[in-house]
Amino acid sequence: MDRISISGISAIGYHGVFDFEKRDGQSFVVDVVLHVDISRAAASDNVADTVHYGEVSELVVAQIQAGPWDLIEKLGSEIAEAILAGYPTVATVEVVVHKPQAPIPVPFSDVSICLVRHQTLHTAVIALGANLGDPQATLAAAVAELGEEVQILKVSPLAVTKPVGGPPDQPDYTNQVIEVRTQRSPHELLDLCQRIEAAHHRTREVRWEARTLDLDLITYDHLVLEDPRLTLPHPRAAIRGFVLAPWSWMDPDAVLGGQLVSRLAQQAADTKDIIRL
Ligand SMILES: Nc1ncnc2c1ncn2[C@@H]1O[C@H](COP(=O)(O)OP(=O)(O)OP(=O)(O)O)[C@@H](O)[C@H]1O
Ligand SMILES: Nc1nc2c(c(=O)[nH]1)N=C(CO)CN2
Q1: Residue of minimum CA distance from atom 6 in ligand 2
Q2: Angle of helix 72-86 relative to helix 53-65, nearest 10 degrees?
Q3: Which of 17, 111, 216, 275 has the most CB atoms at less than 10 Å from its CB?
Q4: Domains and CATH numbers, the chain
């Protein structure tokens, strides 16, 4: 992996075990190494395609000035976490914190800690559906747009399905399921899905009415969650053939709630009418 290194970022901080360190402050010096793919920036020559080292340096200074913490281990960890959270394209960060004026009662030139932290990657399953406009083109566009923001691991074949619920006389749906890998939190992933739905003119007036695009978050790792915005796994996924069938085509070993998705698909009432494209 390519790397960006910044060394000798210094600022006054108030970290230390002793009261006088928290009162008087002293110099902290930080080196960071960011493991990040710089090939896009190398090709485009555009700073937006890489990690801006000036911004990272300012973030490091802000962390040195925050706290105070007792330990440089804690300061280093805060710096690493802030960089990983702020820059999702950084796969790994190495942080060295030097405290050259540390209160050590013998002659010394420097004391430092070094730590290495990695991005945590999550796996999520997203179901797509559309039955207005040009559903196949919309699903292809939505998968491409998701692919700009998360890593697409698997894509199911398309399924043509009968509308389940909602107003009568709707057009057939086209459904699809994908598996993605991301550093985003579940809510950030839901936000992303809803932004893409909105960009495709999704409206919400009548429950389960026909729609240009629907993106549902089906699972996120093995997370079980219920809050006002998000329920995981998706509360109706286990009985929806239009989700289960394409999911099982994509991943025959997939499991939901302890049961094989392919078996749940066989049991779902709407599966019999599904056509695989
Ligand atoms: N796992 C989830 N995936 C997507 N939305 C969810 C999830 N859990 C809860 N929600 C919430 O459900 C709300 C309604 O979503 P939406 O309008 O897409 O429903 P729908 O697709 O018409 O119906 P259904 O939820 O039965 O698929 C969203 O605003 C979102 O906050
Ligand atoms: N066949 C089919 N029916 C549905 C679908 C869907 O994607 N496909 N989505 C719904 C609400 O999300 C309600 N009903």
Answers
A1: 129
A2: 140
A3: 216
A4: 3-118 (3.30.1130.10), 122-276 (3.30.70.560)
User: What local confidence, expressed as pLDDT, does residue 208 receive?
Assistant: 83
The yes/no answer to whether this complex scores an ipTM above 0.90 is: yes
Residue closest by Cα to atom 26 of ligand 1: 236
Length of the chain: 277
Q: What is the pTM of this model?
A: 0.76
CA gap 268, 265 in Å, rounded = 5
Local confidence band at 82 (pLDDT 50, 70, 90 cut-offs): very high
Q: Across residues 42-58, what is the average pLDDT?
A: 96
CA of 155 to the centre of ligand 2 (A): 18
Which residues does a 6 A CB cutoff place in the pocket of ligand 2? 129, 161-166, 173, 175, 208, 214, 242
How far is the C-alpha of 34 from the C-alpha of 91, rounded, in Å? 8
| Residue whose pair of structure tokens reads 């802030």 in the numeric block | 82
Q: Long-range contacts: 218-224, Cβ < 8 Å, 24+?
A: 218/124, 218/125, 218/126, 218/127, 218/177, 218/243, 218/247, 218/256, 219/124, 219/125, 219/256, 220/122, 220/123, 220/124, 220/186, 220/189, 221/122, 221/123, 221/124, 223/186
CA of 122 to the centre of ligand 2 (A): 26
Tell me how far apart the alpha carbons of residues 159 and 154 are, in angstroms, rounded to a whole number.
Answer: 15
Sheet with 112-118, side-by-side order of all strands: 3-13, 26-35, 92-98, 112-118
